[in-house]
Amino acid sequence: MKPLKPDSGDGNSITALLQQLSEGNREVEAALIPQIYPELRQLAARYMRHERRNHTLQPTALVHEAYERLVQQPQIPWQNRAHFYASASQLMRHILVDHARTRQAAKRGGIQHQVTLDEALLPEAGQSADILAVHEALERLARFDARQSRIVEMHFFGGLTFEEMASVLGVSDRTVKRDWSMARAWLKGELTSKQL
Predict the structure, then answer these.
(1) CA of 155: how far to CAs of 26, 53, 164, 176, in Å?
(2) How far is CA 173 from CA 30, 82, 151, 180, in A?
(3) pTM
(4) Is 162 within 8 Å of 178 (Cβ atoms)?
(5) Alpha helices, H only, the chain
(6) pLDDT score recorded for residue 65
(7) Cα gap 65→70, rounded to integer Å
(8) 17: buried, middle or exposed (CB in 10 Å: 19+, 13-18, 0-12)?
(9) Less CB within 10 Å around the terminal CB: N or C of the chain?
């Protein structure tokens, strides 16, 4: 997975602009949006690749909804750009889960949204699990290890590198890699048992 582009470190860096935004300065959005939009769009496209082909949400709509929700949350002390993208990743997943639940409720138990997971999470290539099953599995994982759940979300859905996740979580790269390995094995068993 491709790491995030490096931050410039000056007053117009993403981190500096995010910090100004968290302090209530909405005027920085004009400089911030062009810098974050391409990576948010890639993140949304990564999520949408796991959705059904005729999904009513498009990556652009997902980006806009996630961005609006992120900036409407007052006083978030953004640590850095990886923290922002990790939060965006989590929010996009929740938007898609909410959308799936709404659609499923409207159909009263109709067809669930299918999401194809990589071979690392499923025993056989080509198997799929619905977005709600993945979400519920991550929620169960979070009950006994919240960090492992966040690592799966940030790495698999958000595309963050081990180093970026370590920075966001305040742990070592080695800890992130160990947690990723354990979480991946747990999810593989959890999702496989739900498909039987």
Answers:
(1) 30, 23, 9, 10
(2) 34, 14, 11, 10
(3) 0.64
(4) no
(5) 14-22, 29-49, 59-72, 81-107, 131-144, 146-152, 162-169, 173-195
(6) 87
(7) 9
(8) buried
(9) C
